[in-house]
């Protein structure tokens, strides 16, 4: 198997939402950010963590296509087929929120270590090496952190939109009938939805995803993550309308 080239994800994420309090009410404040430089920061941390262990093969995960926050990750494959999942988020509170979904994958042989805005799940030996090497690492554990407070309304709305879009990207290639069936509802809920999804993946990329699903199903999420920036831009921009 060819070794994927680990590269930084530099497509700008144009708009992000932040909730602010105003006279007892919640106001959605939209702020532009330099997605390129900010995401490079996350990539640098993820690559630093990955450098602490011996990766036979590194696979970049360019964004979290199921959650509102910016993320950069690395899947680190070992010679025995085991994998470390390294994830770095823009906001520290996102770690506890996202990890609630990862609990079933954590065990004594595949524990968890967290840092200020990152986490790693993988074989115990490697996780312990990372815990020793990273200054902000906490103790190795098999328990995820307690759930954080509920997401702000804008964050929750963006996350819902993203999960629909991630499912549509997958279905467009692997379940086209279901994709077409859902489109009228999603286009009504999110005007411009079909164009956002269809323009994110070229026909060649759709064909490539079909091959990955056939031969390397575990890599689907990493492949789809390449389109996370475009989808997040659409979902967050939709909140501003």
From TrEMBL:
<keyword id="KW-0812">Transmembrane</keyword>
<feature type="transmembrane region" description="Helical">
    <location>
        <begin position="12"/>
        <end position="31"/>
    </location>
</feature>
<keyword id="KW-0472">Membrane</keyword>
<keyword id="KW-1133">Transmembrane helix</keyword>
<protein>
    <submittedName>
        <fullName>Uncharacterized protein</fullName>
    </submittedName>
</protein>
